[in-house]
Amino acid sequence: MADAPGAPGTGAAWTTGGKEGFGTATGAASKVWFTLGQGISHEIYYPTVDVANVQDLQYVVSDGAGFTRLERDHTTKQLVLTDPRSLSYRQINTATDGRYRITKTHTADPARSTVLIQTRFEVLSGGPLQLYALYNPSLNNSGMGDTGATSGGQLVASDGPVSSALASSTGFVKATSGYSGTASDGYVDLSGDHVLGAQYDSASTPGNLVQLGQIPVGTDTTFTLALGFGGDRGAASANASASLAGGFAAADTAYRSGWSGYLSSLAAVPRSITGAGLTTQYNVALMTLKAHEDKTYPGANVASLTNPWGEAKDANTTGDCGYHAVWSRDLYQVSTAQIAAGDSAAADRSVDYLFTVQQRPDGSFPQNTRLDGTNCWTSLQMDEVAFPIVLAWQLGRFDAGMWGKVKKSADFLVAHGPSTPQERWEENGGYSPSTIAAEIAGLICAADVAERNGDTASAARYRETADRWQAQVNAWTFTTSGPLGDGRYFHRIDGNGAPNDGQNVFLQNGGGNHDERAIIDAGFLDLVRLGVKPAADPEVAASLPEVDSTLKVDTPNGPMWYRYNHDGYGETASGGPYTGAGVGRLWPLLTGERGEYELANGRPATTHLSAMAASANPGFLIPEQVWDRQSAGGFTFGEGTGAATPLAWSMAQFVRLAHSIDAGAPVETPSVVKQRYSAACTGVSTKFTVNATTSWGQNIFVVGDRPELGAWNPANAVPLSSVGYPLWTVNVTLPKGTAFRYKYIRKEGGAVTWESGADRVGAASSGCTSAVNDTWRP
Q1: What Rg value do the Cα atoms of the chain yield, rounded?
Q2: d(CA 340, CA 588)
Q3: What predicted TM-score, i.e. pTM, was given to this entire model?
Q4: Does the keyword Hydrolase apply (predicted)?
Q5: Nearest CA to 546 among 489, 596, 601?
Q6: pLDDT of res. 681
Q7: Ordered DSSP codes for 452-519
Q8: Which of 15, 476, 678, 682 is deepest in the core (most CB within 10 A)?
Q9: In 10 A of CB 757, how many CB atoms?
Q10: Which amino acids are annotated catalytic?
Q11: pLDDT value at residue 638
Q12: What is the C-alpha separation between 671 and 428, in angstroms, rounded?
């Protein structure tokens, strides 16, 4: 028995986040998830969706004398969804020189944790060729702790609680285990003289293991490769052997039946989908959402079975969660789509997971976690505290047990909001329109749950806080002196709730340092989508020209939007992977959010639905980001990048938009929130804010042409509060739809000083709240 030298080998990495296909069986007996990209197998997860175990698995072709070629690098590639009602994918890779073709059909054995790859190898020209399976395990979330061996004709490997076994229905002619990049690496050996010389029966020192097995082939050979997993090598080997014994056809038939049965259990496909010929896209989206749920921790859906730009990520240790972690915000997006599609049971499991596993004793929720609830990233995002409350309300979870948990989170919002350490893009803190929208919706939903449980005091406190924040959101986040457009718009985030003070914001993804008024995103649309502002709110509408002129790109697939300007989260300018600084690209989910806003205003959103569908790859997976300019560097304008594909949030947004189009309005909008802040208000609560420096004994007032503003009589002027000095504020309720003129005055004893300049002009919108933000004119 020869033990491989060269441990631990070269450093390990993961693969690109741009997956072309993926799959898992629907039942819990098979706890394995496979991903596909670049014509090969990428990360495979076992026993949970947050444990990656494979860097890649691919074939190597050699003529034994003149060449040795990796399947990934030397073929033209085609990917096909073989069943419109199953996550069943086939990869067809043809040699660039036309000498051979490799056709692979993938499935997961529903009865056990084995991935099966039915393979047809065809020699198209040039005589006999040799075929090898090249397996690069990265067991237990790390590429640097694996050991391996040849055992019973299989290549087995292990790292702690995870083991794998690679087997072929034909057996292996030769097999070896070694360390990546060293002389014991079978691929390195084979590449040298195109003959596999040294064979090592074991690689017993932990390191970056590489395993290579030669498969006997002729000019047209079909066989099955099995990669089994288990808690030890014996269990993994038993799974691979049993799956091979059962045969690919039987496993694949059961696999497809599971997915078809799941789709049959759901609500009817929306007319917006069937009428546009998008049924397969819709079904894949729903299957994607289900496939991201773990089978050991029910209700825990990871954001994506990917590690964005994983090829540039260190895989030597277990520290990087990638996107295989649980965010309560993403889980809310997934669950609201599942509710609309008729899978409320899945959403109920997610609510139970959120409030049982993720909720902290103080009522907060972490930025994200591994499946067992331990922190992955460590910040706090207040929208992620609010969304679980909204989801519980949407599911009618009003029982006393749930109320006790909801109360903790609602109390946390009251105590710590509305400012947030991070908003939904996870990079900056302050007053965020999207976060505040979620917080208000969460409090109003919590108030309803409180009232149903007899806690009228908490209900009143939540509503009072929500109403106050709803009245002030414009004053905190709507600038009237911005450098974009006419200067009047919601900006992305404000550090101190003073949207005209020009405070700088440092974008923590390499985007640089900028005046916060110059950074805009479309997160304020959540104010409408969550019912916090009426659909036709004038400040929301006034912000759209700046959003579209700054963030919108008309791609070949339809309109797409950036997260925000100066975003650094994306490929570098030359197309290299993001490693801390880059150029933010377009996000298809934002197209869906804009579509929901358009629907709320009675306008069509079919263009937005079609654009989202068109951004999907041949595997019908909708990406996190798409390329934002003319095709270059291997990227296609309007199609996915090396970020996360699929992103569960993107797939959920597509499903939810489709149902919203059929409903004629956003289906996620909590009715209890919309009812409170829609046309039911009798006037417009207008918040006046002015930056004015005063001396002791001086006070600031507002006076104008309306009776509510004192009818130009200084004696009846409205006093402003100096609590936020030098900002002076007051809320005045004005009749809807009225224009008004006003100025500020300073009073000291009996003396009155008017600010200089012409009368200021304002308007009480058709919504329930508005704001003006001014600076005293000496």
Answers
A1: 29
A2: 20
A3: 0.88
A4: yes
A5: 489
A6: 56
A7: HTT-HHHHHHHHHHHHHHHHHHHHHHEESS-SSTTS-EE-S-BSSS-TTS--EEEETTTTEEEEGGG-
A8: 15
A9: 9
A10: 423, 426
A11: 97
A12: 30
